[in-house]
Amino acid sequence: MKAVILTGGEGTRLRAVSGGVPKPMMPLLGVPLLERTVALLRENGFDSLCMTLHYRPEAICSHFGDGSAFGVRIQYRQETEPLGTAGAVRNCAGFTAGEDFLVISGDSACDFDLRSLAEGHRQGVTIALSSRAEPLPYGLVLTDRSGRVTGFLEKPTWERVVTDRVSTGIYMLSPPVLDMIPPGTKYDFARDLFPRLLAEGVSLRGVVMDGYWCDIGTPRAYYQCNLDALDGLYRLPGEDPPPRRVVPCRDRARLMGAMAEVLAEFGADFTDGLTVTGRQGRAHLAPLADRSALALDGDGAAVRRLEALARKLEDGMDRRALDIRPEGW
What we know:
By secondary structure, this protein is an alpha/beta fold. It folds into 2 domains: about 1-215, Alpha-Beta Complex (Spore Coat Polysaccharide Biosynthesis Protein SpsA, Chain A); about 245-329, Alpha-D-phosphohexomutase, C-terminal domain (TATA-Binding Protein), CATH 3.30.310. The protein has 11 helices and 17 strands. The strands form 5 sheets. A 7-stranded mixed beta sheet has the order 5-4-1-6-11-8-12, with helices on both faces. Strands 14-17-16-15 form a 4-stranded antiparallel beta sheet, with helices on one face. It is globular. The protein starts with a strand and ends in a 15-residue tail after the last helix.
C-alpha cells in the first residue's frame, strides 16, 4: 500500500528546543519522530512512501535515502513555495498513480491500527479521528451515528464545542478526490478541500481510532510525548510493546467500578482485577498500589481497546454514550 507523508513543516513554535531541526526529525527517545512514523507505516503494510519536502529537505533525504535501510521504498517531492497540506499531496499525483492511499503528518506521533483504517475505506475520504478532553487546539469533526461527516469546526472556542472528536490529519483518499485539488496551488485539507467535498456531497467518513496520538507542535507537547513513550502510553512503532500501560486517574476505585459496569456484560473475569478475553486477545486491568492509576497488560490490540475505554470514562464520558460492541473484544 502507498502513503504520502507531509514532512515540509518548519516547526516555528518548536524553535526554542529544536535549534532549527525540521519538526519531523525531532528525536523521540533518541530516534527521529519521522523514523518512528515510517516504522508504523511498514508495520501496517504501507511500504511505498512519498515524502513532501520544503524546510531543510537535505536533513530528511540524507537520513532516509531510498528507504531500503528502513524496509520501505521512498520517493520525494520538494516544494519551492509552500503548497498547503492538500496542495502538497496533489504534488504527489504521479506517485499515487490512481490508487487509494494514506496521508499522514510527519510531525505527529501515533500507534493507530492504520491497516484497519485502509481496509474500512471505500470511497472519497476516510478521516482518522481521536477523542480529546481538551479539543480547542484542533479541528473538530462532526459525524452522525453511521460515521458520515456532517460538519467541521476549526479550532473553536469552548462556547462552540459540540464534540470531543478531532481530526488527526490522517486520511485515506480515493483518486477522484486527488483530482479535485488544483495543481500548483496553495490548498488546505481543512480550510479548502473538505468544505468543498461536504458541499458537493462527496463521501466523507470519520473513524474514531483506538490508541495514542499527539501533535508535537509545541515544546510542551513534544516533551509530553517523550514522557508518554517512557510511561508506555505511546507504543513506539518498531519496538516490542511495553510490559504494561498506565492510565493515571483521579479515583482508581471509581474508575475500576465504571470499567466493571461497562464490561460485565461481555464476560469479564473479576477474580484478579478485571480480565477481558475475546477475538482481540486478552487484556488485564488492575489498580496500582502506590498511586492513583490503572495498569494494563496483555495482548496489544485488546490492551489498546481497554485503555481507550478507560480514558474515555476518566474524561467523564457517560457509559451510555460509549459505542461498545461485543465483537470489539
